[in-house]
Design a protein that fits this description.
Helix content: 40-55%
Strand content: 5-15%
Number of strands: 7
CATH class: Alpha Beta
Low-confidence stretches: 265-269
Structural class: alpha/beta
Strand order of the largest sheet: 1-2-3-7-6
Oligomer: single chain
Largest sheet: 5 strands, parallel
Shape: globular
CATH superfamily: Thiamin diphosphate (ThDP)-binding fold, Pyr/PP domains
Radius of gyration: 18 Å
Number of helices: 10
CATH topology: Rossmann fold
Length: about 270
């Protein structure tokens, strides 16, 4: 797929801008933003159509969504510079208004999928075109409302609904296995009657192909990811759910992304 090389370049650019935005604002949650960034970029640049809708259920990854919208030209540098500042429209979680394309305020976990199923049913009842996509965290599946939502989605055969689980294996107070082990998650989704795929959430080719696939029923995609992806001192570290970047760590993170870009550019295609 020729678009994959373009996505790789966009991911590198977006990762650097995400680091800068979080460093300048002094805000944490960067680990889960980095795990979700590849999915968001593939979705927005290669999959979403004019009639589609997207809901970010894991609202603490708002930074990754804002940077994705920036790569699409829907937000500007001046907007990102106001991230998490007083009076900004770019709050720490997606706002209920002020940014085209952001349909709901989210961040109180466990509610995005219910909103998405309601939108998907509305489209189906009105015979409207387009699909509804929802990006969730894996820790979010501790919330019972999500299981009710997939019962609802299967009952109404919402074949225009696709949700993606950013399965980085870590949540606020530890690993998902320690807090509430729900594995094997894919088998549970299939037991509910969902079409389910399990993929590498940092492989753009796999993400694009799976997201584009015609669902044939309500679809679940488990994207296996790494918290803090691409930054050595953040990867697989629960504390980067919270920590802000210090100046030395920011410089190291930028250096690592830049060096990785140089190595990738030098490799034969």
């Amino acid at each position: 797929m020729p678009e994959v090389s373009l996505i790789h370049a966009t991911i590198r650019r977006a990762r650097l801008r995400l680091l800068q935005m979080h460093f300048e604002s002094g805000v944490g949650h960067i680990g889960g933003n980095l795990s979700a960034l590849d999915t968001l970029l593939c979705l927005y640049h290669q999959v979403l159509q004019a009639d589609d809708a997207f809901i970010l259920s894991k609202g603490h990854a708002a930074g990754a969504l804002y940077v994705t919208l920036w790569t699409c030209g829907q937000l500007q540098d001046e907007d990102l510079q106001q991230f998490h500042q007083d009076g900004t429209r770019l709050s720490g979680h997606p706002p209920p208004h002020g940014i085209p394309g952001i349909l709901f305020a989210t961040g109180s976990l466990g509610h995005g999928l219910g909103l998405a199923t309601g939108m998907a049913l509305g489209k189906k009842l009105k015979a409207e075109p387009g699909r509804v996509f929802c990006l969730m965290s894996d820790g979010e599946w501790d919330e019972g409302a999500n299981w009710e939502a997939i019962i609802f989605a299967r009952q109404h055969n919402l074949d225009n609904l696709t949700f993606i689980v950013d399965a980085n294996g870590l949540q606020g107070w530890g690993t998902t296995q320690e807090i509430a082990n729900l594995e094997p998650l894919a088998e549970k989704f299939r037991a509910f009657g969902l079409v389910t795929d399990e993929i590498d959430g940092h492989d753009p080719a796999a993400l694009i192909a799976t997201l584009r696939r015609e669902p044939g029923g309500p679809r679940a995609i488990i994207a296996r990811t790494v918290k803090g992806h691409g930054i050595s001192f953040m990867e697989h570290k629960m504390e980067w759910h919270y920590l802000p970047l210090t100046a030395p760590l920011y410089e190291q993170a930028v250096r690592e992304v830049t060096e990785r870009c140089a190595i990738s550019s030098a490799e034969p295609s």
